Amino acid sequence: MAHGFVTTFVFVVAVLKEASSGDRKQKSSLEAGATSHGYPDWNRGNEGTAWWLPQLLRHKYLVMLACSGIEFVPRQAWGARPPKEWERLKVQPVPRVFVHHTAGGECFDTWTCSEKMRYIQHYHQVTKGWEDIAYSFLIGGDGRVYVARGWDAVGAHTKGHNKDALSMAFFGDFSRHLPTPWAMKTLDRLLQCGVALGKISTDYTLHGHRDATCTLSPGDTLYAFISRWGRFRGRLQTYTC
Q1: How confident is the model at residue 189 (pLDDT cuts 50, 70, 90)?
Q2: What are the residue boundaries of the N-acetylmuramoyl-L-alanine amidase domain, all occurrences included (predicted)?
Q3: 12 pLDDT exceeds 70?
Q4: Does residue 151 form part of some domain?
């Protein structure tokens, strides 16, 4: 109980400090009707912090809640090379998310998954000639999320949708079995986190890689499983081989 109180207290103090700083730096823009701190327009006039602090606290709390429980492994931690080029997504928040599998071996710890990340990046950059590893994120069998291109970059994952979608891939071949329960739970959490961060649209649709182009990805068993999720919409009208 004491630990939870301290965590909440520290969180509120941090937001109050941001609020105080934001008032000093952004008072003129708020009075002009601009958005505050990059969040939705909560302008109500000239009342200062008093009117938007509750909304800011609520927004930050919802983001913290949605993204808690996800262990991200950043690029530098798994030993990523720099991208050859970097391009921002044309649409944000993205209207759709694609689920992939790598069709290779599975991994269940940070060391092995990081090794696979480096191999996949090398294959995509050197053999394929792409700018970077294709996907937005990869999910290990232990439930960790390995940051590939991340939330904001154009990918090389889904033909026709690299500039308006995100990709979440699982290490392994899931034609005959599902990823681990931890990995599947992480996919759900990652989707919720993306919505809370404003990276994924609140009315996004979910698809398998095969819904956009002729491929076996993400495997028959995994595809059948996600097809029962509420946001799943199946084959796209833009399907092509």
Answers
A1: very high
A2: 86-219
A3: no
A4: yes
Instruction: Give the Cβ contact number of residue 72 at 10 Å.
Output: 14
**CB proximity list for 213: less than 8 A, separation 6 or greater:** 158, 159, 160, 239, 240, 241
Structure tokens of 176? 């005959």
Q: Check whether residue 58 and residue 122 sit in a common domain.
A: no
Q: Per-residue DSSP letters for 140-167?
A: -TTS-EEESSTTTB--SSSTT-SSSEEE
| Domain extent at residue 36 | 2-67
Q: Would you give the end-to-end CA distance of the chain in angstroms?
A: 56
Block residue for tokens 């034609």: 175
Kindly state whether residues 43 and 98 are assigned to the same domain.
Answer: no
pLDDT of residue 66: 77
**pTM of the entire structure?**
0.75
Q: For residue 52, what are the contacts with CB-CB under 8 A and spacing of at least 6?
A: 36, 42, 43, 44
Domain count within the chain: 2
